[in-house]
Amino acid sequence: MEEMDEPKTFRSLGVCEQLAEACLSLGWANPTRIQMESLPHALEGKDIIGIAQTGSGKTGAFALPILQALLENPQPFFACVLSPTRELAIQIAEQFEALGSGIGVKCAVLVGNVDKVQQAISLAKRPHIVVGTPGRLLDHLSNTKNFSLRTLKYLVLDEADKLLNLEFEKAIDEILKNIPRERKTFLFSATMTNKVKKLQRACLRSPVKVEASSKYSTVETLKQQFRLVPAKYKDCYLVYILTQMAGSMTMIFTRTCDSTRLLALLLRNLGMRAIPISSQLSQAKRLGALNKFKAGECDILVCTGLMSRGLDIPQVDLVINYDIPENSKDYIHRVGRTARAGRTGLAVSLVSQYEVEWYLLIEKLIGKKLPEYPAEEAEVMQLVESVTDARRMAHMTMKDNPSHRKRRGRDGDEDADEQFVSLKKGNKSKPKRR
Ligand code: AMP
Predict the structure, then answer these.
(1) Is the pTM of this model over 0.70?
(2) Atom 16 (ligand 1) nearest CA
(3) In the CATH scheme, what architecture does the domain 222-424 have?
(4) What residue's CA is closest to ligand 1, atom 4?
(5) Where are the beta strands (DSSP E) in 62-105?
(6) Whose CA is nearest to atom 11 of ligand 1?
(7) pLDDT tens-digit profile of 371-402?
(8) Listed residue (424, 358, 420, 350) closest to 380, CA to CA
(9) CA of 56 to the centre of ligand 1 (A)
(10) Domain 7-211 CATH superfamily
């Protein structure tokens, strides 16, 4: 916890001139805390377990030492970074490319729901860095001719605790069998589970554990509030907050894929620019929705916990937990989507009578009681009629266009766009966001 007397620079931590300049060109004037803690060890060639809150600059903390080692010893298939979600994998590759643009770094991204042939072509170009989700990487290791990671020097597991969940365990074990034991390994995660310790025993060599924050903290620039709401008026409170916070770039978290779609339709029926994203959508649709949000075409992204890990959209200034996560650690990941890289942000949790228990677990985990979101109940109740209408119309649309889960080419994003256009004509509900 002691403050350093001299502000550290990337150079003073051992980062070479070329990469320090790359950092500067990205606007990284000084290293973040996790970078300060981990870079000297990682540059020395140590294995690292990094516990860093989301938005702390952890991608830089593992990308810089890899790029520096690559500069010293250029070779294809130098490093492999695994991530639990496709979006995070793409984001990591983008940071590698941005930091490595001056040194001609080539990356391949191997994620599911995307054309395998294109990916095989990118592997044939013999990239330096492969970033991917475990299933698809394993698929290529098994089926793509001339692709192997036998000369790999670095392995990174980002969101390591998630990657060690049962759903990924088998794929990870298989991948570990196909890469050299003589390598450097970095594990990064905002939350740490015993399973990480298990992997630590299996694969790491005298790792250095670096921690940029206490285990389950959230960043200081994040303001967190909650509001107890009757379940039947939750939509009204949601709409009220969105109206109060007009102009904010907002992520709303719900429990199920269907409710992302329903809520996005409901909000659209009220004239708000909302877009749903969930695992029901094809990868192209997911990226499309994300890009619309990033570009500001839509300012409300309604998503499931799928989008809660690692995603970096610095402009997000409001996170609303429409549903309270049962697993309190998910809360940390969700609210970490705002107040990134030193910016401020607000997270509001809407707690119904059925969710109080889960909410109390969250307060216990973060070690503090949160203040209440100040909502004028009378004003909220004025929204009941229009919100009820909007919900009814959203339900009708969902009924007319039943779940697209198994259908190709008509994903919710597209449906929602079409539905928005047709519903706008009959729209009589009025709470205005901007
Ligand atoms: P991450 O935790 O890796 O998702 O990074 C969060 C955000 O912080 C990204 O937008 C990075 O570009 C940014 N970032 C990373 N390192 C620094 C730094 N040293 N100074 C300023 N911003 C940074």
Answers:
(1) no
(2) 57
(3) 3-Layer(aba) Sandwich (3.40)
(4) 55
(5) 79-82
(6) 57
(7) 999 998 999 999 999 999 999 999 999 888 77
(8) 350
(9) 6
(10) P-loop containing nucleotide triphosphate hydrolases (3.40.50.300)
